[in-house]
Amino acid sequence: MTRDELMQLEDRLQLRTYNKLPIVVERAEGSWLWDVDGRRYLDFYGGHCVALLGHAHPRVVRAVTEQSRSILFYSNLVYSPVRARAAKKLMDLAPCEMKQVFFCSTGTEANETALKLARKATGRARVVAMDGDFHGRTMGSLAATSHQKYRDGYEKVFPETVFVPFGDEAALREALRHEAGVAAVIVEPIQSMAGVTTAPASYFQAMRRLCDEAGTMLVFDEVQTGVGRTGTFSISDRYGMRPDMITLAKSLGSGVPVGAVLVNQKIADTVGYGDQGTTFGGGMMAMAAMEATLDALREDGLMERATEIHDRIFDGIRKYGGTLRGEGCLIGLEASRPVAPILKGLRDEGVIAGGSLDPNVMRLMPPLTATDEEVDFFIDAFARVVEPMLAADHED
Fold first, then answer.
1. Full residue range of the structural domain in which residue 229 is found
2. What average pLDDT does the segment 153-159 reach?
3. 199-214 burial, b if ≥16 CB within 10 A, otherwise e?
4. CA 279 from centre of chain
5. Which of 231, 241, 211, 271 is closest to 97 using CA atoms?
6. Residue 262 sits in a domain of what CATH number?
7. Cα distance between residue 199 and residue 204, in whole Å
8. Is residue 372, in this structure, part of any structural domain at all?
9. Could you report the per-residue pLDDT of 315-334, keeping only the tens digit for each?
10. CA 172/CA 353 separation, integer angstroms
C-alpha cells in the first residue's frame, strides 16, 4: 500500500482523537525514524516523550526478546523473577523515602491510582491541582487536568477538584486553608503540555510544608520529568524535598507500556489486599523492558548525558531569540509567534519536534542517547528554518 492509502485506511478505521502528522513511520533506530518512502527523520519528540533511550535500544530489544522466549505474560496472581529484579532496581534509583511501588500500564492509570491511594490514606475526597497541569484524559485523571479543551462536556462529574495558579504559594495556602477535606495536592513539577512551564525550588519546598500542615498527601506527576530525563531520576532531587507519591510512565519502558506509583511508608501502611489492582501492570514483558531501561540509565551515565544535551541545545539556539526553559532533555522554546511554521519547517528539514497547548512554545524531548552530531543536526536544521523568518522580520 502507498503512503496515502495507509493514511486513508487508518483515518477511516480509527477514531479521530489525534491530529496526526502526515508521516507513515515504518521503522526506527536510535534517534531516527524512517517512513514508508525511506525518508529519515531525527526524532526529538520521542513519541510523546517515550523514547528515553532512542528507538530499538539494544539492551531493551535483547531483554524483551529473551523474556518472550520464556513467558510473555502472567498476572500479579503469581510471583515473577523479572518483576522482583525490576522492582528492586527501580526502588534503588528512586528517592530513598519511596518504599514500595504499584505497577500499571500508563501514566493516566498511575495518576488515578495515586489520587485513589491519597483518598484512602486520608479519608478525604478533595484534590487541589494546578492551572496548566495535564494528568491524563480518562475520567479520574481528567478531574485534575485543567485544560478546558479536554474537560468540555464533563464538568459536572468533577466536583471535588480545585485549581490554583501554578507557582503561586499564597493561592495554594488559601486553598488548603479554606477547602475542607483535601486528600491530595497533585502537580507536574514541569508542566510539559502547558509549554514547559517551571517554578523555583522554593515553591515546591513550600508546597511540601503546606501539605504537611494540612495533613494532605503530595503527589508529583513525573510521567514526563522522571526516569532521568531532567538529569536526575526524580526532579524532587533538585528541589531538596520529597512528595508522598511519585508517578512514572512514558520513558520507564522505552516504548513498552509500563507505569508506576512510588509511595512512601505512610501511604504503604494504609494499603491492603484488594485496594487496587490491574491485569497487565507488572507483566513480564513490561518488567523486562523496564529493567533494561534502568540498567542503561545507571550503567551508561545517561542522566549526566541529559544535562550535556540540554546545554548543547541551549548554546546552539539561544542566539535566535525566544525564551528557553526546562531541565535536561525536556526543553521548551517560547517564541514571539506561533511555532507551527517552525515545526513544519523542521519536518521539511528531517526533524520531528513537538508543539504544546501554548501555540508559541515548541517542545524538544531528545533521547538521552543522542550524539553530539545528532544534536548539531537539529541545531543546523533549526538555523535554516528560523534565519529566513528573522530576516523577513527585519525587512518588515
1. 59-299
2. 55
3. beeebbebbbebbeeb
4. 23
5. 241
6. 3.40.640.10
7. 8
8. no
9. 999 999 999 999 999 999 99
10. 34
- Residue with the bigger pLDDT between 234 and 155: it is 234
C-alpha 22/C-alpha 296 separation (Å) is: 33
- 370 inside domain: no
Residue 379 contacts residue 45 (beta carbons within 8 Å): no
Grid cell digits, residue 18: 489525534
Total count of domains within the chain:
1
Range among 160-169, 231-240, 364-373 with highest mean pLDDT value: 364-373
pLDDT band at 85 (very low <50, low <70, confident <90, very high): very high
Q: Which helix (H) or strand (E) holds 324?
A: strand 323-327
47 domain residue, yes or no: no
Q: Looking at 195-350, which runs of residues are DSSP E strands?
A: 217-221, 245-248, 259-264, 323-327, 330-334
For residues 125 and 127, what is the distance between their CA atoms, to the nearest angstrom?
Answer: 7
Asked if residue 260 lies in contact with residue 104, where contact means CB atoms within 8 angstroms, the answer is yes
Q: Residue 231, SS3?
A: coil
Q: Could you give the 3-state DSSP secondary structure of residue 327?
A: strand
Q: Does 150 score more than 80 pLDDT?
A: no
Sole residue written with cell 551515565: 301
Q: Give φ, ψ of 284 to 5 degrees.
A: -65, -40
Rounded Cα distance between 94 and 266, Å, is 16
Reported confidence tier of residue 149, pLDDT bands at 50, 70, 90? low
124 vs 181: CA distance, rounded Å: 5
> Is 251 in contact with 223 (CB distance < 8 Å)?
no
List Cα–Cα distances, 180 to 155, 174, 184, 245, 266, in angstroms.
20, 11, 12, 21, 21
pLDDT category at 142 given cuts 50, 70, 90 is low
Cell of 152: 468540555
Query: What pLDDT does 178 receive?
Result: 81
Which residue has 513490561 as its cell numbers? Answer: 286
| Sequence-ordered list of residues with C-beta below 8 angstroms from that of 292, at least 6 positions apart, any chain | 57, 59, 60, 62, 63, 64, 254
Cα 205 from Cα 212, distance rounded (Å) = 11
**Is 182 a member of any domain?**
yes
